[in-house]
Design goal:
The protein folds into 2 domains: about 5-30 and about 45-110, Helix Hairpins, CATH 1.10.287.990; about 110-225, minor pseudopilin epsh fold, CATH 3.55.40.20. It contains 10 helices and 3 strands. It has helices spanning about 1-10, 15-20, 50-70, 75-80, 90-105, 120-130, 130-145, 195-200, 200-210, 215-225, and strands at about 150-155, 160-165, 180-190. A 3-stranded antiparallel sheet has the order 2-1-3. A hairpin with a 4-residue loop joins β1 (about 150-155) and β2. α6 (about 120-130) crosses α7 (about 130-145). The N and C termini lie far apart (about 60 Å). It binds manganese (III) ion.
């Protein structure tokens, strides 16, 4: 009975606390940001189990590797912008840290996702015809990314909205990106982002994901990018 109780207690510990009992995180310039909501707050779109593994294990691993491998005194933004000049371990882990930090902030619990600004709403309608057509195009791009990667809505170098994808942990801020721009919205289409809930049905995950997109945050990014 006591043994059962201890297992139950362990299962509700925050993952960060569990990780600390296993290994002492490396001291370094880069740190894992806290999630801006509870791990289960995006359920059923993203389960607590997926979120705990994704944030507490996958993202932590990018941070730890970066602390081991990155040159001292170089910011994450510089590592990302000049990814092509560094070894792949830097490109992959700097991208992983940047992308996931951005991703957590892109989402919110379904009852607090905020409103899309009029300016962003109009821009989406102008480029894609309607919000629904934009979402379909974004989902199709994400579903069509072969293997692991990300699907993005960016402001491109002509100050226009564009949907693009990147392989692995690349992103549109990188010098190596085929299409460069400022990310407004990004979804992770690595299997670890959805497999526990959706199995191989990536398209279902992409469709469900809209329920937890934080439009207030995305709208703020849009106005900030245009002001640059
Ligand atoms: Mn991921």
């Amino acid at each position: 009975m006591k043994h059962t109780m201890s297992i139950v207690a362990l299962s509700v510990l925050p993952l960060a606390a569990m990780a600390q009992t296993e290994t002492t995180p490396a001291e370094g310039a880069f740190t894992l940001p806290d999630l801006p909501y509870a791990a289960g707050a995006l359920d059923p779109v993203i389960s607590a189990e997926t979120m705990e593994l994704h944030h507490g294990r996958h993202h932590q691993s990018f941070v730890d590797t970066l602390n081991d491998e990155a040159p001292a005194g170089v910011s994450l933004e510089d590592l990302v912008a000049n990814a092509g000049t560094y070894p792949d371990v830097i490109r992959n882990n700097a991208g992983g840290h940047w992308n996931h930090s951005f991703f957590w902030e892109t989402m919110a619990p379904a009852d607090s996702v905020g409103e899309m600004s009029e300016a962003l709403s109009q821009a989406i309608t102008t480029v894609y015809g309607s919000q629904q057509e934009f979402q379909t195009a974004f989902q199709d791009a994400g579903a069509g990314q072969f293997g692991s990667g990300w699907v993005w809505l960016i402001i491109n170098e002509q100050d226009q909205l564009q949907i693009t994808t990147t392989p692995n942990q690349d992103n549109p801020l990188m010098d190596v990106a085929e299409v460069q721009g400022t990310p407004l919205l990004g979804n992770d289409v690595w299997e670890h982002a959805y497999y526990l809930t959706y199995n191989n049905r990536r398209a279902d995950y992409l469709e469900s994901w809209w329920d937890v997109v934080n439009w207030a945050e995305v709208s703020d990014r849009y106005s900030a990018a245009l002001a640059e």
